[in-house]
Structures are given as C-alpha cells and as structure tokens.
Amino acid sequence: MSNPASTTHTPGVLPTGTEVLIEAVGLRKTFGDFVAVDGIDVQVHRGEAFGFLGPNGAGKSSTMRMIGCVSPVSGGSLRILGMDPALDGARIRARLGVVPQQDSLDGELTVRDNLYVYGRYFGIPRAECRRMATELLEFANLTDRADSLVDPLSGGMKRRLTIARALINSPEILLLDEPTTGLDPQARHVLWDRLFRLKRSGVTLVLTTHYMDEAEQLCDRLVVMDKGRIAAEGSPRSLIEQWSTREVLELRFDEDDLSPHARRVEGIGERVEVLPDRLLLYVDDGEAAGRAVHERGVRPLSSLVRRSTLEDVFLRLTGRSLVD
Amino acid sequence: MSLAAVVVERNVVTYRRQWIAFLTGFLEPVFYLFSLGLGLGALIGDITLPGGQVVSYPQYVAPAMLAMAAMNGAVFDATYNMFFKLKHAHTFDAMLATPIGPRDIALGEMAWSLVRSGIYVTGFLLISLAMGLVRSWWALLAVPAATLIGFVFSGLGMAATSWVRNYVDFDYIQMALVPLTLLSATFFPIEAYPAQVRWLVELSPLYHGVVIERGLMLGDVGPGLLVHAAVLVVVGSIALWVARRRLAHLLLK
Amino acid sequence: MDPTLVAVRERPRPPLRVLEYFLVLLRRTFRGTIFTGFLSPLLYLVALGYGLGSLVDRGQGLDGVPYVQFIAPGILVATAMQIGVFDASYPVLGAIRWDRQYHAMLATPVGVRDVVTGHIAGITLRSLLSAVVFLVVAYALRAVPSWTGVLSLVAVLLVTVAYATPMFAIAARAQTDVSFTLVFRLGVIPMFLFSGTFFPVSQLPTAIQPIAYVIPLWHGSSLARDATLGTLSWGMDLLHVGYLLLWCVLGGWLATRTLRRRMVV
C-alpha cells in the first residue's frame, strides 16, 4: 500500500486541478413515487476523503449504491472513473472497494477464507489472493483470528474485516456506507485510524455518516444531505464558518415550555434555537453571552459553552437534529 | 403443572401464525399412505399377520403411518423448534426470569408437542376409518397409544437437542430418523429381516409403537402389547429425566 | 498492491468465480452432504428395495424387474430433485437476506447472471457427486443391472437444474422462509411419492395419471430407469430430455429475472 499521492489536509481548499473520479450531475433515484435522491451534483477528486452527511433517510445510501454500480440511476448523469455505470458496471466495480452498511461477511467461512473468496470474485489469481489476505489480516489487526469463523467476532472486528475485504482488489475508490454505526467509541477510533492510513496511501474515500464527529474527523470535503437534496457543500470548517457562529451557549432548563426564556435571551447572539430540553445561543463569545443572559435575569439549570459543530450547521440548514 | 400450562399457552399463541406448517405437517403421513399403501400396495397384495389374520397392504401400513405421524409431530417440536427457542429466540431465558423453572419448561414443551401430535393422529385415524382401514373397536385406544409414542420421541428429541451446537448438527438427528422410519417394521414385517438382526429392529422405539398401533387398529390384541407399552414408558421416562437435567444445566449455569 | 494485477484479472470467467465459492463452502459442509446426498438414499434403496421388495416380488411383481432394480433409478433422481430444491431454497434466501453473500458478490465485477449460473452449477456439482457414489454402490449391489446406467447421470443433471432453477426464483422472491415449508410438503413430498419413484404411474387412478406426465421428476425417473435397466429408446428418451431441458431453460430465465428484480433496485 504505497502510493506517493498524499493529500494535504487543508480543509476548505478544494483540490482543484486534480482528476475527477466521480461526477454526478442532477443525479436522481426514485422507487415508484418515492424520490430518494432528488437531483444532486457531486464531484469527488482523486485522493480526497469525501463525505455525505445527513440523517437516516436523506438519500445517502441510495447515492452510494448508485456509485457502487449495484443500483440503476433513475435520472441525471453519473460517471465513475470516466465510465458509465449502466454500460461498464463490472469494469467500474473491479476498481472499487465497497464497505456496505450491513455486513455481508460469510458466516460459514473463516476470516481468511472470507478475504480469499472475495478476491476470487475479482478474478485475482489464487496465490495473489492468499498473499493479499495475509497482508490485509495484518492491516485489520486480525492475524490471530485468521482461522476463526466470522460469527464469534465482535462488531468492530467484523467491520475491520469488511474494510480489509474491500481492499483485496487494491481499489482506487473505497465506498464506506455508515462505517462506524453501531460500534462502541473505542472500536470507532481504531477504525478511523485505519481509514486515515488508507487515505495517506492515496486511496480515495467516499463515506456516508450521520455522525458529525465522524464527518469532522475523516472528511476533507462533504455535502450535507437532507430529503434527497444537497443542502450545503464544503470542508467541515468552512461549513461551520459559513452556517454557524464560533461558539454556542447551551442553556438547560427544567421546564416543558422554553419559549418564554427564548424570548428573554433574544438579541444576545446571532440566533436562538429551541430544543425540547435546552436553548442554543449562537454567539461569537460564549463567556460574554453567559454574562448577558445572567444580567437579563434568566436562571438556567446549567449552562455550557462549546464550539460550533456540523450538528449546528445541520440544525441551521434543516431546522432538525441529525441524530434523534 | 400450572406453570407448564403457561409454556403450552405460549406455543399455542405463536402457532396461530404458523397454521400452514401445522396443517401441512398433517398431510405428510396421508401422502405416504396413498403412495406406498395404495399405489404400491396393489402390487403387493395381502399380508398375513403373525396371528394368522390376513389383511390388505394398506390396512397393514396405515397403523405404521399413524405411529410415524405421532413421532414426526413430536420430534419436530422437540428438535428444531426447541433449538431455535434455546439458542436464538432466548425464549426460555425470558421464561426463567419469571417464576417458571426448567422442569415447567421441559414438561410444558412436551405437553405441547403431545397436543400437536395428538391432533395429527386423530385426523389420520379418521381418514383411515373412512378408507376402511380400521378393523377393530380397539382402534379407539390408538390415540392414547400415539400419545405414548409422542412422549418417547419428545423426550428423546429434547435430550438430543440439548447437545446440538448448530443447525448442521441436526443432520445427525435426521440421520437417526430416516432409518427409524424405514426399518421399524413400518413398510414390511420384521420377519423380512434375517433372524440374526431382528434384535436391532427391536431397539427402535418406533417399532414398539408400530406393533401397538397395528394390534389396536387391526384388532390383533393380546397381553404382549402391554410389554411393548412398558418399553415405551421406560424409554420415555429416562429420556425426559435426561432432558430435564440437561435443560437445567444449559439454562441455569 | 500492484497495479499491474489489473491485466490478469480477467480469469476465470465470473460464473466460475461464484462456483469456486460454493466449492469452498462444500468443503466445510461435506458431512451433511454425505448424509442427504448418499446415506439417506442408500437406506431407502436397501430398506425398500430388499425389505419391501421381498413382498413386491412375491406378488405379480413389476414385469419381471426385481423391485430393487425398479426403485434404484427412482431414488437416484428423487434425491437429485431434493438436493436441487433444498439447496436453492434456504441458501438463496440466506444469501439475499441473512448472510447477504449475494450483496458481497454483486459489489464486485460479478453480475446477476454470474451469481445464478455459479450457484446453480455448485448445486448441480454436489448433486452429481452424490449420484456418482450412489450409482457405484447400487451397481455393486446389482440394483443397476446395465452398463448404460452411467447415462442416468444425464437425468440427474437435468432434474437437479430443472428443480433448482424454479426454486431459486421462488426463494429470490421470498421475504421469509414460510413458503419453503409449503413447497417441500405440498410439492416435493407428493412428487417424491407419486411420480414413478416407488411404483409405475400406471398404478395411479387413470384420471390423475396425466398430472404425473407434466411433472419433471416423472420424466427424470423414466429416463434414468431406461438407462439403468438398459432399455433406452431414442424417441421416448429424447422426449424426456427435451422436456427437462425446457424446464431448465425456463427456470434459469426466471431465476435470473427474479434475482435481478430483487437485487438491482
């Protein structure tokens, strides 16, 4: 896994001039009357980590399945590696690695055989499959479980195996659909570490997530999706700068109706969001805002100053939370 | 026993949604009766029973199919369904969190499979009657006798299932059922075997069940049937005892 | 990860890659195969062929053919049917819904048609393997009197595919395995019992005999019986082959179409 093409992790800067690997224009996916993806425009460049951020049902997985050439495009155009999925599906898939949302590991095979058999689907010679399997087991930190069946593995191990399996054909693009959903925090960090390593080695990562921390950690650039459309696009930092303030003051109350409090703190910051259990004040200086709130005689149960996150961007763009 | 009844009730509730499997399970022995009994029977002609009585081949086979229905009904519940509840649905774990104990579970599961096989057997008996394959009033005892067969195989099935690790292991259970079905004097008399291997057939619980049912439905009744019944009671009791101990071991560790 | 690998990635053909998976799997589940594919049919042959046969041969018999020789080809192809139906039921639904192997395959250059072809080929290979062992033993037991009996493997192949492909289509449509119970109990078992396995269809009431002639298993057992008894005749047996081929082609088309509708959405 040695590729000289290393990307500079400079958020906010579009890697212009580099090769476009995936290009969607007005891309649509419909199931009967239901519109899952409603005309999106996306460009993914070689070597970057690109994310689709959005809540469940935003159309991320449908988009990923179209990019993975397993779901026909309903409208618009999609080109991957310069080819049309409708005509060259198999040739495109030969150069992709896919980590599906739901594990599709074979419970009846051992860890090693899962890698071996998958490599054979690509027509990779047997000896090469065996060599790659050994190498990837090392990468996924699963060498000591090589001959165990898949079923007894933990969720984190299964995900690492799925990622290792997706790398058996040395893909140019790795598609990851909700890679860490359902994993505990420690397993997520191990997985993120592996993905960083891949990115450094030059693999282009395309991932979907509904975790804003994951998007901030992994993505150079992302689009925020909601109801099948793209609500905003940019690097995590530029999105926050554009759609939110520097800091957020969170005020918690032990009451059912927070709207009276919201009216009293109005004007302190740029904006006030009313959530079921707290108020969010979008401000540049959280400390100062806290003092201002106190001066107006508002007494919250607790208050907290934090930096803006993509969660706030999403709230601003859609009026809803990412995870509920 | 009242808590065991709750275990039965649970099965009745779930079975309401599985009535297709329930209904079609009944048809299997009927198909066998029509195929081997009637279709092939025409080529075979009459059979002379050990007591000298001469019966038609369908009359000879029908009691064996009834015993087989009792066995299959009981075994299916005691093996596949039992394993699923034990390993996947964790039905029993949920039950054990309540006042229900392993003994109630073993008894309740067994009672349920007896109810189920009892329904199959009664239906089969009525069809045999309509086809003129029942020759004696003793046949009224065929259903209780089938319950005894069900009891034995339910116990054996549960005990065996307690050692099953995965679905592949069911091959072993299947491996036991096919020879039982074919070799227990079901389709042809024990006299067809060489004298030296007949004791092997007598090891099969189904054989004793078939002899009892055949005696009752064809009216060839003697005190010998009680010996066969005693064998079934002993085997069934041992199996139930093992099943209960194994269940307790598996569930209360 | 060497980019020059791309050049050698065209071999083997995609359906063979899928077949290879099923061969790896077969190695792991060989024990079950031995029983369902070989021991169980052998038990039927011995128990019914000799035990029940002693009653049949004592009566008017079957036109001078010993009963064990009559049922040997019947059991041979009935086993092929069972393997075809069973292996194309739970494993197919499992590969779609539970273990999701098909999803994994289709994320690679392998396509829907390759998946169907490879899986059916795997089932057929397993069926043929069992059949060969059964035939050798049956020949040794003199249940297969003629050397032409080796041609009964053609019947085994055709019957396996003729049953596996429509079952594949059913499984590829199914949401749960409830319908499988129905197929086994109302389809497979009656066909096993009434389509010429244990007694000639001429024993059935005249009114329902035509039903048997529609059933692929009857054509399979007739073909296999002509082969093992050495009574092959061009006209009739080519008709059997043609009819079974029809099922294979239609079934294969239906299986591919159904799987495509299920997976490519």
Order of helices and strands of chain B: HHEEHHHHHHHH
Task: Determine the number of helices of chain C (DSSP H or I, runs of at least 4 residues).
Answer: 11
Helix/strand order of chain C: HHHHHHHHHHH
Distance between the termini of chain B: 24 Å
> Which range does the strand content of chain B fall in?
under 5%
Verbal overview:
- The complex is a heterotrimer of chains A (324), B (253) and C (265).
- Chain A has 324 residues and is an alpha/beta fold.
- Chain A is 34% helix and 26% strand.
- In chain A, the strands form three sheets. A six-stranded mixed β-sheet of chain A has the order 5-6-7-3-8-9, with helices on both faces. Chain A has a four-stranded antiparallel β-sheet with strand order 11-12-10-13, with helices on one face.
- The two termini of chain A are 39 Å apart.
- Chain A has two domains: 20-234, P-loop containing nucleotide triphosphate hydrolases (Rossmann fold, 3-Layer(aba) Sandwich); 245-307, Alpha-Beta Plaits (2-Layer Sandwich).
- In chain A, helix 3 (111-121) packs across helix 4, helix 3 packs parallel to helix 5 (155-166) and helix 5 (155-166) packs parallel to helix 6.
- Chain B is an all-alpha fold and 253 residues long.
- Chain B has one domain (2-251).
- Chain B has helices spanning 2-15, 19-44, 57-89, 91-96, 102-130, 142-161, 170-183, 198-202, 205-218, 224-251; strands spanning 46-48, 54-56.
- In chain B, helix 2 packs antiparallel against helix 3 and helix 6 (142-161) packs parallel to helix 10.
- Chain B starts with a helix and ends with a helix.
- The mean pLDDT of chain B is 86.
- Chain C has one domain (11-263).
- The longest helix of chain C has 30 residues, at 234-263.
- Classes of the chains: A alpha/beta (324), B mainly alpha (253), C mainly alpha (265).
- The A-C interface holds A 1, 31, 68, 70-72, 89-91, 93-94, 96, 98, 100, 102-109, 113, 116-118, 120-125, 128, 132, 165, 167, 169-170 and C 1-3, 5-6, 8-12, 14, 17-18, 20-21, 24-25, 28-29, 99-101, 103-111, 263-265.
